[in-house]
């Protein structure tokens, strides 16, 4: 067995998700990502089960592993009880640990995710915090969201939230001691190191691409080379 | 015949749902985009049905969106979840009620992993102790908040002021239900009705007078895909999946959609707006959209709550046609007012979809 495969096996999600694949293609048939992207979950599982180091390394550096939507629709259907979605999670995790994620356009987006969702978890105690969901970044949130953003405090008060308030209730300010506990959990369990690893690998890549890190994060958040879709040339 | 067989089959799927004493944990997405839904749920449970449901200001995100965006490692998320369980344990509760499907799916996955890998559980206990000094019990019962509404659906029906019936025709409203992938696709036994015949929303629709629409793409993902919505460059994936569902349900002319997951109603609502603005295509009658509601909002409507207390004004798709069909009265002038009747202006009208 090769080194990369061994590293994958260390991940319990890989152990849960990877039994043995008979290449029936059921996962691909049900997969919403396979319908939209150049993506074939059957092939991902098949590549991994060959234990071919070179092929696994290519996969870890590829766009492919970033196409899955983690909907887990494949899990219900696989006759062999594989969970491609979980294998993908393990592959993505390893790709980031090894710094390979910056080799693909979709992989590079991890920095944008870390700097939005990742930052908000520790700053606010929420994955999503309304003052950060800007109209500029979220035009699809509609004219109603623009109205909400313009009147955020009063609308939340009207609808029974406790936005940034003390005590219980929706969108209350999470007490500092709870935020401190979250931070310590991240420090103790490797979450903070993982964030740093995403930052470090991205910084190197940004330099290579001649961009400042701030330019890079905007670039990865908005750039789509138009080569990912099934119908795209 | 076939329908009867299906109905019987659905009835066979059961899940143990405690009928009182819940430890409630809020959803990041629901709080942001449907802020009145959780207060409505608590109002129904506490004021209408006299249940004991506890919440603490010290709970946080479960970090699930970060986990499924692959930026938060498993060990970290497990320990964040363990902290939530510790808060439950400290408060003296055993029934954990999550307001989010991503959380619910994640809790199910984590508890299952701990069963298969006790050494992982031991490590999480150590980490939690080290980081916070806390200890925890695994919940006796893990439910999604909609499971509770499902369990209490008949009690809600007994107090109902309205039915999901078209008052002009006397016919049941045609209701699309969307349960959200992580409710039961990974662990079918954890959801009411399993993955094949999820019954959690169907049970509510039937008891409250509506008729379920069975359409080809009923089980298809709403298109969230975590990174595929969260990163601007990827949103084509998200809208394309939602469009697939709408194209599939359109011939059945649904009156409304009821959802389980906090994210799905957001996508089913907002992507209708985007599809209309991009392509001029609308799916409801008369150039309007199909209202996509949370189960709390639907329960509140059935109970006769003021639609603007339920937060129906923060949907992009107008709900008035639905309210008119059911015969629910509302004050159009009060729709966009603040807590003390302040004038908050009005949202801008989209170009291609009528939003009242
Ligand atoms: S459904 Fe399961 S067995 Fe079939 S190709 Fe996919 S992973 Fe392999
Ligand atoms: S989890 Fe990923 S691979 Fe599985 S069906 Fe969903 S998108 Fe496809």
Question: Please, could you describe this protein's structure?
Answer:
The complex is a heterodimer of chains A (233) and B (356). The mean pLDDT of chain A is 96. The two termini of chain A are 37 Å apart. Chain A is mostly helical and 233 residues long. Helix content of chain A is 58%, strand content 0%. Chain A is globular. Chain A has 2 domains: 3-98, Orthogonal Bundle (Fumarate Reductase Iron-sulfur Protein, Chain B, domain 2), CATH 1.10.1060; 105-222, no CATH class. Chain A is built from 15 helices and no strands. By secondary structure, chain B is α/β, with parallel strands linked by helices. Chain B has 2 domains: 18-145, Glutathione S-transferase Yfyf (Class Pi), Chain A, domain 2 (Up-down Bundle); 151-334, 3-Layer(aba) Sandwich (Rossmann fold). Helices cover 45% and strands 8% of the residues of chain B. Chain B has 16 helices and 8 strands. The longest helix of chain B is centred in the first third of the chain and has 18 residues, at 74-91. Chain B is globular, with a radius of gyration of 20 Å. The termini of chain B are far apart. Chains A and B meet through α2, α4, α7, α8 and α10 of A and α2, α4, α5, α6 and α7 of B.
Q: In one word, what is the shape of chain B? A: globular
Could you say what the CATH architecture of the largest domain in chain B is? 3-Layer(aba) Sandwich
Reading the helices and strands of chain B in chain order gives: HEHHEHHEHHEHHEHHEHHEHEHH
Query: How far apart lie the N and C ends of chain B?
Result: 41 Å
How many strands, which pairing sense, and closed or not: the largest β-sheet of chain A?
none
Tally of alpha and pi helices of chain A: 15
Radius of gyration of chain B: 20 Å
What is the overall silhouette of chain A? Answer: globular
Reported by name, the CATH topology of the largest domain in chain B is Rossmann fold
List SSEs of chain A in N-to-C order.
HHHHHHHHHHHHHHH
Largest interface: A-B, 90 and 94 residues
Low-pLDDT segments of chain B: none
Q: What is the alpha-carbon Rg of chain A in Å? A: 20 Å
Q: How many structural domains does the protein architecture of chain B include?
A: 2
Mean pLDDT of chain B: 94
Briefly note the structural class of the backbone of chain A: mainly alpha
> What hetero molecules are bound to the protein chains?
iron/sulfur cluster
Helix fraction bin of chain B: 40-55%
Number of strands of chain B: 8
- Main beta sheet of chain B: strand number and arrangement? 4 strands, parallel
């Amino acid at each position: 067995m090769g080194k990369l495969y061994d590293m994958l096996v260390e991940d319990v999600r890989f152990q849960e998700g990877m039994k043995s694949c008979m290449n029936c293609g059921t996962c691909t048939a049900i997969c919403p990502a396979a319908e939209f992207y150049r993506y074939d979950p059957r092939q991902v599982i098949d590549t991994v089960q060959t234990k071919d180091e070179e092929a696994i390394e290519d996969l870890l550096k590829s766009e492919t592993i970033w196409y899955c939507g983690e909907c887990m629709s494949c899990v219900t259907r696989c006759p062999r009880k594989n969970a491609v979605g979980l294998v993908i999670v393990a592959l993505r995790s390893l790709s980031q640990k090894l710094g390979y994620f910056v080799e693909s356009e979709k992989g590079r987006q991890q920095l944008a995710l870390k700097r939005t969702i990742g930052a908000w978890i520790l700053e606010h105690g929420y994955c999503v915090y309304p003052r950060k969901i800007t109209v500029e970044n979220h035009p699809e949130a509609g004219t109603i969201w623009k109205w909400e953003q313009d009147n955020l405090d009063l609308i939340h008060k009207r609808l029974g939230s406790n936005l940034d308030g003390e005590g219980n209730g929706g969108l209350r300010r999470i007490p500092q001691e709870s935020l401190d506990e979250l931070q310590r959990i991240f420090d103790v369990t490797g979450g903070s190191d993982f964030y740093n690893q995403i930052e470090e690998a991205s910084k190197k890549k940004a330099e290579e691409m001649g961009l400042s890190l701030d330019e890079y994060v905007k670039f990865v958040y908005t750039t789509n080379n138009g080569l990912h879709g099934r119908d795209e040339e | 015949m076939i329908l009867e067989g299906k109905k019987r089959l659905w009835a066979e799927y059961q899940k143990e749902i405690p009928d009182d004493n819940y430890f409630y944990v809020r959803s990041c997405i629901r709080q942001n985009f449907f802020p009145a839904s959780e207060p409505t749920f608590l109002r129904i449970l506490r004021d209408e049905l006299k249940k004991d449901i506890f919440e603490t200001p010290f709970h946080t995100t479960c970090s699930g969106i970060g986990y499924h965006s692959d930026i938060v490692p498993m060990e970290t998320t497990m320990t964040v979840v363990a902290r939530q369980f510790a808060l439950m344990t400290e408060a003296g509760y055993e029934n954990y009620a999550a307001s989010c499907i991503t959380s619910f799916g994640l809790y199910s996955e984590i508890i299952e992993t701990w069963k298969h890998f006790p050494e992982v559980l031991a490590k999480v206990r150590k980490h939690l102790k080290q980081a916070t000094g806390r200890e925890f019990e695994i919940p006796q019962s893990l439910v999604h908040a909609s499971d509770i509404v499902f369990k209490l659906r008949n009690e809600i029906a007994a107090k109902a002021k309205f039915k999901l019936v078209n008052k002009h025709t006397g016919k049941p409203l045609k209701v699309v239900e969307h349960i959200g992938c992580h409710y039961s696709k990974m662990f079918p036994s954890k959801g009411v009705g399993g993955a094949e015949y999820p019954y959690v929303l169907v049970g509510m629709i039937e008891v409250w007078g509506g008729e379920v629409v069975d359409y080809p793409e009923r089980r298809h993902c709403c298109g969230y895909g975590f990174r595929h919505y969260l990163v601007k460059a990827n949103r084509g994936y998200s809208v394309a999946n939602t469009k697939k569902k709408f194209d599939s349900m359109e011939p059945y002319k649904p009156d409304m959609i009821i959802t389980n997951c906090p994210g799905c109603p957001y996508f089913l609502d907002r992507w209708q707006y985007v599809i209309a603005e991009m392509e001029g295509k609308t799916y409801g009658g008369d150039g309007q959209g199909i209202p996509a509601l949370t189960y709390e909002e639907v329960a509140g409507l059935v109970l006769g709550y003021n639609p603007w207390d339920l937060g129906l004004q923060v949907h992009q798709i107008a709900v008035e046609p639905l309210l008119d069909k059911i015969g629910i009265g509302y004050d159009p002038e009060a729709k966009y007012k603040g807590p003390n009747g302040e004038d908050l202006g009005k949202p801008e009208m989209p170009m291609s979809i009528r939003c009242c």
